[in-house]
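Design job #97: recover the sequence.
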């Protein structure tokens, strides 16, 4: 396995793709997962190829994202969006990028969008199915990140669209916003995971539920040793892309409406999740984790370099221990 970063992590540096590659190389990472927004959403094959060649020349592994596979959250008409994503797939393939990240939920549409969420899932599966001829032609696959959606829902879409053209981009800490246990989620998605966002976090109780705070890998409550071991059983050459940022995310899991929207959660998994929250509360109480609100006041850019260095060293240690380096 190799360790890279997702370009969103360093977005505030305002680097173009070439300078992003330079930055990643200088910090000791093995690769970078780009978003098509890093290229101005141009679908410029010549640019994609040139960036890929530049990365290869510098020993940096690269991968790419395409626009959302959910036609209900984009501004284009559905048929035009199918054509647009098909063009993105074609442009990526020209540069040798065939495993492509996407998402269903941009933020919290799962809970607030006027269209029922099951319709979003059905439309997303149909959208990817409509791209099958393009994906087959270029030997490509769309990998859905569990962004605001649950891993249960991602797998539902993957199975409907077909695992030959659709897989998973597993985000380790986005599991927490839907009360999923990261390890149990990893066990569900590991056979279908071809891309990753490695993210750590802590979760603590609020009056209405729980809130999540992002942490550098190794500074939160994700059991990365067990998670990576699970992923390694199926994809020992998987690129582990660190996606790091701050922000507090709150979710109202004490409310009936929230519970009703998460029917796949079992009592056992909710119990495991509560253990993680209790663990966080104890670490805050004994001072091993900084106060959440005080820590959040520090601008991310003041901590970014340190967080990335900590995360890289921590993950390299795990890979060595698991003999996956």
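Job complete. Output follows.
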């Amino acid at each position: 396995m190799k360790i890279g970063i997702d370009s969103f992590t360093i977005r505030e540096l305002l680097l173009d793709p070439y300078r992003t590659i330079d930055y990643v190389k200088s910090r000791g990472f093995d690769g970078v997962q780009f978003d098509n927004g890093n290229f101005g959403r141009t679908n410029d094959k010549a640019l994609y190829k040139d960036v890929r060649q530049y990365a290869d020349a510098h020993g940096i592994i690269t991968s790419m994202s395409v626009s959302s596979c959910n036609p209900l959250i984009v501004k284009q008409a559905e048929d035009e969006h199918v054509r647009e994503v098909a063009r993105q797939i074609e442009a990526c393939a020209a540069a040798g990028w065939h495993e492509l990240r996407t998402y269903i939920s941009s933020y919290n549409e799962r809970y607030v969008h006027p269209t029922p969420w099951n319709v979003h899932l059905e439309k997303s599966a149909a959208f990817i199915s409509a791209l099958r001829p393009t994906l087959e032609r270029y030997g490509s696959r769309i990998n859905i990140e569990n962004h605001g959606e649950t891993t249960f829902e991602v797998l539902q879409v993957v199975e409907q669209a077909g695992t030959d053209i659709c897989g998973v981009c597993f985000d380790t800490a986005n599991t927490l916003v839907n009360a999923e246990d990261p390890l149990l989620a990893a066990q569900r998605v590991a056979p279908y995971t071809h891309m990753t966002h490695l993210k750590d976090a802590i979760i603590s109780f609020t009056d209405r539920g729980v809130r999540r705070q992002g942490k550098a890998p190794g500074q939160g409550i994700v059991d990365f040793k067990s998670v990576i071991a699970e992923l390694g059983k199926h994809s020992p050459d998987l690129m582990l892309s660190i996606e790091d940022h701050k922000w507090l995310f709150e979710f109202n899991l004490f409310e009936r409406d929230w519970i009703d929207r998460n029917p796949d959660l079992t009592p056992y998994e909710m119990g495991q999740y509560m253990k993680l929250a209790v663990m966080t509360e104890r670490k805050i109480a004994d001072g091993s984790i900084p106060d959440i609100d005080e820590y959040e006041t520090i601008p991310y850019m003041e901590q970014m370099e340190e967080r990335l260095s900590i995360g890289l060293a921590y993950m390299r240690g795990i890979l060595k221990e698991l003999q996956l380096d």
